[in-house]
Amino acid sequence: MKSTYGFSRRGPDRVAEELAAVLSSKAAFEFKPLFERVHANLKSRNAASGGEEMLRLRAYEKLHNLVEAGIVTKTGKEYRGVKAALATFIETAATLNAEFEARKPGRLPVKPEAKV
Question: What is the pTM of this model?
Fold first, then answer.
């Protein structure tokens, strides 16, 4: 019997967003060049964490979730984005990111300690 103790504070899914952004072009990609592009974009945004191999596994899983959802089509070994579904996905992600940022609590100011 599993019960949850607390709440999840998941932030925006940067990997899926970057996959969608790269696949929104008209080109079809095999996984390796697609991952290299996504990884370079995430590194430039300073959003790549957990090591390259872990990021590769996460990207592969996210890509297949997008395929199952009908946002991306897979033909052989190539992946291509479905334009209308990607637009909806990107809009939804932007809305959820804005809500997440609005809920993020501000930090309390640090009080200087009194010297004795």
Answer: 0.74
